[in-house]
Amino acid sequence: MLGDTDGNGWGSAALCHVEREGLRFLVPISKEVNPMFAFAFLDSFLDTLGTYLGEVTETTLRNNFDTVYMLIEEMLDEGHPLTMETNMLKDIVLTPTLVRKLLSAAGVSALQSTNTNPFVSVIPWRRPTSRYSNNEIYFDIEETMDAILDRHGKVLSSEVWGRIGCNARLSGNPDLILTFSNPKLMGNCAFHPCIRYKKWNKDAVLSFIPPDGHFKLLEYRVVKSTSGVTRPIGMPLSVKPAIKLEKNGGKFVITVSSRINARPIENIVLSLYLGDGTTGVSATATGEKRGPMNGGAGGRTDDAAGAVGGGSWEWDPNTKTLKWTISSMIMSERPASLTGSFTSSLEAPVPSPSIQVAFEISQYSLSGLRVDQLKVSNDTQYKPFRGIRTFARSGHFEVRW
C-alpha cells in the first residue's frame, strides 16, 4: 500500500504487513529501504510478543496494551531497531503476569519503570548470572515442505525450509561447537547473532555462546545439489486424484498412501474447494482397519478397535470446501481412499484445480539433516545434557488434478 502525505512524492509511505491468527500487523516505511528489513522486524516483534503473551490475539493485545507499548518503545528507537534480544527485554520490560503481581502489591502505574537494574552484560544476548543445577540444552529441528505435484505424482516444484530452535539451560558462559554429519544440506542460512559466521564459512560448524532460554539458532533452505549433483527430496505422501466434472456436479476418487518407512504420517488433511455453486457432497472414506488399542497397525494405540483407517470427511457449506482428515498412516497399510460426488447449482461447476495437503511427521527429517556432536570448547566444568528432536510438516503443498 502506498500513500502520499504531502503531495510532493517525498511524503510517500509504504506499508509492509503480515497476517497472523486473523490479525494484520503493519509497519510503515517513510524512506527507501529494503522491505525485508521491515518484515524481519515484524517477525522478531511477533516472536517476542508470543514469548510475553503466550498467544497473540486481539484479546491478549488489548488486555496487555501497556506491555506491548513498552516493548515497542524498547525495540524501536526513532524508527530504527534497538533492543531485539528477548533476554535483554525481559530485564527491562517485565512479563505481564509478574507486572500485575508487582503493581497489585505496590499500587503503582503500569507505565512506570519496572526495573531499576537494567540488563548489563559483555555478551548482549546472554544473562550475566545464569546458574542451573542441571545443565542441559535442547535442539528442535523443524522442516517444512512446499511442493506442487501434478495428478500423476510428478514433482513440478518443491522446496524444504528448516529452522533450528534451541532451549539452553546452561550455567556461566559456555562456548559451544555444534557439528552436523551433512552440513552442506543447509543453504541460504539466517543466523542468530551469537553464531560466529567466519567459523561456519570456514569449517561448516556452528560456534556460539548461546542465549539463556528459548531462541531461534538459525533458519535455512535445503540445498538440492552438491557439486553439481542434484539430490531429489522424496515426497512423504502419494496423492492420486481422479475428478470428473459433469453437468451440475461431478464425481471424485482421491487416494492417499505413505511413502516413508521410518515414521507414521500424522494429522493428514486434504482440502478441496468445490466451487461457489456447490450445494451438497456425498462421500465414503475407506482404508485399512486398525487393530485394537494394545496392538494396532504400526504399534499405534490412538485408534479404537476396528476403526477404519480411511479417516473422516466433512463438507463446509460456507466455504464450499471438502475436507478429508486421516489421523495417521504408515507405509505398510493399503492406501486410503475417498470416493464420492457433489452437486452444483451451476451447469458447469468450477472447483479449485488443486487439492491442498497438510501433514505432520514426528522424529523425521525431510532433508536427512543429522546432528553429529556438541562440544564445550572453553573451561566450563560440566558436560551438558543434549536433547534433539526433529519434526517435519507441510507448508504450501498442493496436488493438481
List keywords for this structure.
6 helices, alpha+beta, Beta-Lactamase, 401 residues, nine-stranded mixed β-sheet, globular, Immunoglobulin-like
Describe the structure.
The protein contains six helices and 23 strands. Helix content is 15%, strand content 43%. With 401 residues, the chain is of the alpha+beta class. The two termini are 35 Å apart. The protein has three domains: 2-106, Beta-Lactamase (2-Layer Sandwich); 136-233 and 364-400, Immunoglobulin-like, CATH 2.60.40.1170; 237-362, Immunoglobulin-like (Sandwich), CATH 2.60.40. Strand 18 and strand 19 form a beta hairpin. The model is unreliable at 1-10, 110-117 and 292-307 (pLDDT under 50). The strands form six sheets. A nine-stranded mixed β-sheet has the order 9-11-7-6-23-21-16-19-18, with no helix packed on it. A four-stranded antiparallel β-sheet has the order 14-15-20-17, with no helix packed on it. Strands 1-2-3 form a three-stranded antiparallel β-sheet. It has helices at 35-53, 58-63, 65-75, 86-92, 96-106, 197-203; strands at residues 2-4, 12-20, 23-29, 76-77, 80-81, 136-149, 155-169, 176-180, 186-191, 206-208, 213-222, 225-226, 229-230, 237-246, 249-258, 265-273, 278-286, 312-316, 321-329, 336-344, 354-362, 371-376, 385-400.
How would the blueprint of this fold be written?
Layout: E1 2-4, E2 12-20, E3 23-29, H1 35-53, H2 58-63, H3 65-75, E4 76-77, E5 80-81, H4 86-92, H5 96-106, E6 136-149, E7 155-169, E8 176-180, E9 186-191, H6 197-203, E10 206-208, E11 213-222, E12 225-226, E13 229-230, E14 237-246, E15 249-258, E16 265-273, E17 278-286, E18 312-316, E19 321-329, E20 336-344, E21 354-362, E22 371-376, E23 385-400
Parallel strand pairs: 6-23
Antiparallel strand pairs: 1-2, 2-3, 4-5, 6-7, 7-11, 8-10, 8-22, 9-11, 12-13, 14-15, 15-20, 16-19, 16-21, 17-20, 18-19, 21-23
